[in-house]
Amino acid sequence: MVSIPSPVQRIQSVDFDQHEVEVWVKREDLIHPEIMGNKWRKLKYNLIEAQKSDSSTLVTFGGAYSNHIAATAAAARECGLPSVGIIRGDELSTDSNHTLREAAANGMELRFVDRQLFRTLKADPKLIPHYNDYYVLPEGGTNHLAIKGCEEIVWELEEHYDYVVTAVGTGGTMAGVLKGLKGRSEVIGISSLKGAWIDQEFALLCQQFDITETNYQIIKDFHFGGYGKVTDELIDFINRTKQKNGLQLDPIYTGKMYFGVSKLIKDQFFPLNSKILVLHTGGLQGIAGYNEKAEKKILL
Length: 300
Known about the structure:
This protein is an alpha/beta fold. It has 11 helices and 10 strands. The strands form 2 sheets. Strands 1-2-10-7-8-9 form a 6-stranded mixed beta sheet. The chain has a 4-stranded parallel beta sheet with strand order 5-4-3-6. The chain is globular, with a radius of gyration of 19 Å. The two termini are about 20 Å apart.
């Protein structure tokens, strides 16, 4: 059952009140229990196109803990499409973690390949055997149809916000939000990846998909060491947020994004009386896999 539009709720905090800003969260995590957040948005039009094209199988790429792999497997099952996940790491197996087990349980055939072959196939999917029978999605799911789906996140808004903040991975969600807003709000991306290269990559993404709006910035100070890296400070913050506000965050994307927003508010990055919308892009399936291997657990 898909729940659209996703609700918007205000987050009450003494810190926010002290700095005279309003913080609201668009709860994209409530769209669907398995195909949540930006993954549902990215998959929506791709699944329609796959069904229209009579492709026999949905094929995509991802790492061991990929939200995209998990969501694609669940979505393909719901649509009655076979699915294949090409997984980075030939040392892995279906039983390696929660994400891979769930993807397999949803009917996805997992093909584990070494990192060099993964890069080769991702760069040129036509090298995949039986390519002509497949509808291929890129790693992370970002293509023109995914961006079209992500535009709809902000089309649902009934109020104006001065800032719209989202986590940044491949950049597809931020690109769609930027395009959908048409300059009406400043877009802030909080990168989960380490490195200044993300600015150039996002600029190229916008160029590729004819997105001309420039009212955005990507902040790269809250990656906690890089993609997939966490610290005790981050996990403590995620758990406090859960206890105080009932807001469940994941350690890869939304936790870092919300930590960044909170710190930026304390540092007076946002002008007084700013109205800030934070996008909760889902990704909560990854918590189970994190908790399996971590000493400091995320509260559920």
